[in-house]
Here is the input.
Amino acid sequence: MDEFMHAAIAEAEAGLAEGGIPIGSVLVHDGRIIGRGHNRRVQRGSAILHGEMDALENAGRHPAKVYRAATLYTTLSPCAMCSGAILLYGIKRVVIGENRSFMGEEALLRQRGVQLTVLDDPRCIALMHDFMQQQPTLWNEDIGE
Here is the structure.
């Protein structure tokens, strides 16, 4: 696993340590992280601060060419909202830690030309599995049933 997925996992672990949902993300451009974040719905009382959205927010404003050349790393398959942001900003490559716990809008992203790499990473799988077992109500509040 590369350093960028490690950074996304560290973000997920930070979110869990804060009492939130363990999903992390980093936005990488030209070999460096320009934005990092984790799901902060619980911590901030937010309806939209998923890991990917937090990473984009923390990246700040960039020209469209930066987003088109960036790669988004996320520990969990992106939901419809986060996939919409990926498409809106023209991010062409997404590296996904795992999609067993939740299958996001991967078909839509692929259909729109986004290159997806699913790592099936054991640490990402364990983070979500354990969280969903321990906090089913919180998981279901956001993206579950």
